[in-house]
Design goal:
AtpZ/AtpI family protein, transmembrane, membrane, 85 residues, transmembrane helix, 91% helix
Length: 85
């Protein structure tokens, strides 16, 4: 592997790492903050906060699952490229 390819590979993995962080962290936070806003604005109970948090965690899990499928597909494609002459 050449030096320039190695540098782009490191940047690609850094982008993947930051994408996973955003995919996992943002949905539960938005769900929780949105649920707290709904509770304060409309006077709903604390159950809406639990529901918002669970919804956010569910969205994060689905996003993580899709990202892992994407990386697995990319790994298979790179293996095929290496095997081809």
């Amino acid at each position: 592997m050449r030096k320039s390819e190695s540098k782009w590979s490191v940047l690609r993995y850094l982008a993947y790492f930051s994408q996973v962080g955003c995919t996992v962290a943002v949905p539960p936070l938005l769900g929780c903050f949105g649920a707290v806003w709904l509770r304060d604005r409309f006077g709903w109970g604390n159950g809406v906060v639990i529901a918002g948090l669970l919804l956010g965690v569910g969205v994060a899990v689905c996003g993580l699952r899709d990202f892992l499928r994407f990386t697995e597909r990319k790994a298979r494609e790179s293996e095929r490229k290496e095997k081809m002459p």
